[in-house]
Amino acid sequence: MNDPLPKSALQAQGDDASLAFARALRSVRYEDIPSDALAVAKANILDGIGVALAATTTTPACREMSEIALDLGGKPEASILGYGGKVPAHMAAWVNAALVHSLNFNDLFDAWWSHPGGTLLPVGLASAERSGKVSGKEFLTAYVLALDVMARLGRAVFPPTPSRDWASYGWLPPQIFGYFGGAALAGRLAGLNEKQQVSAFGLAYAQAAGTMEPLFGVGADKGLYQSFPAQQSILAVLMAAKGIAGAPRSLEGKAGLFPLFFRGEYDPGALTEGLGTRFLSSELGAYAYPCCGYTQVYVAETLKLVRENGVRPEDVESVTLSVGPRALNLCEPREVRCSPSNMTEAQMSIPYTVATAIAKGKPKIDHFTREGLRDPAILAMAAKVRWRTDPACDKSYGTAEIQAGVEIGLRGGKSVQFRHNGYRYGHPRNPIPRADQVEKFRDCMVYSVKPMPAATVDGLIDAVDRLEQLDDVAQIVRMIA
Hints:
By secondary structure, the chain is α+β, with helices and mostly antiparallel strands. The protein has 21 helices and nine strands.
């Protein structure tokens, strides 16, 4: 691996990086954060709210989790989004995290493999409600810092030339890193001191887990994994606030996160270089389609290919994907990926999403619901999809660049094809325009279990846009609970 970058001034030689994180969480002010980092946080918050409310009618598991939380009861501290009702903060975060991530439609640190919003938005809203009258400026500050924590954890183990393909080892970094990001956000909003914050990280680490099996396997409600770090990070902060001590070297200790989960193969400097002055949220991208991040480039390029060549579904005779070792996991087993039985199986399928793009155009939430999965036009197109292995067609971890290829065979022996090498649509270097982000939000709001008038939707967009002016973030929660 590359030589480590110099340690941050926030971290003395021999200190665990969790102490550096704790110091940054206490010392950074709203005025220290550049406008572009604040803009990314706002966009992520609005996007998360939209996809969460869309999930209220399209993912049955989320309703069932809401029913569990309400049945368990407890102190009414924080709101369940969409469905309504108040429960203890950690239980609200548990339900709301499932809502944010179940549609697989929110965000991604492409290079560092993390979906931060699925944990951070639920933790932030529940913590803010529990604390009472958290200003928009303080909320944004905590949010940006927590995004930074999650980005740095990923950057440490996914450099441009990683020594290992950590995905093949079975750990699920978006979930594992979420325990620390959630503890950072909840800890800042709770006003923890440095010692308490370090303990919160240690207590969160004591609960950290997450494997790729829900993604590799079939049949699981995959999107729910964000619920666990959201719930447990709040509990970790509550424990730390009471003086309960967590492991002080949760990241770099003998059995800390990096030595244990990642076999000691990480870049210590990547954790702390520029900490408190450079905010990595600028690398956070959004999803244009409600499916796995890996499928996004195949979908976007297929849509472009169809549009530019005037391809009609009835003229398509065959579709051939070029996929590498990682992408192959999203093509097999064939009977599942070409004829998925549930939303997760469809979201994690390159054949199904490409078939949708050809048969229906831009994939929408409807195409992944129970009714959508039975659409004969999509299934007929998916039956025509084949794939060939090409080691070059894969994601380059640490750079976010992806190679992908699709060839569409047409009547008369003609074919059209693309070969993509670059950033997916939605990555910061290939961004979704603001107007399209707002359109996505409005589309999501149509699915909310409690429909909102257009004027209310406009008011919600405006409230997030001027979040720094709000005296109490709970104003937004009241609009969406």
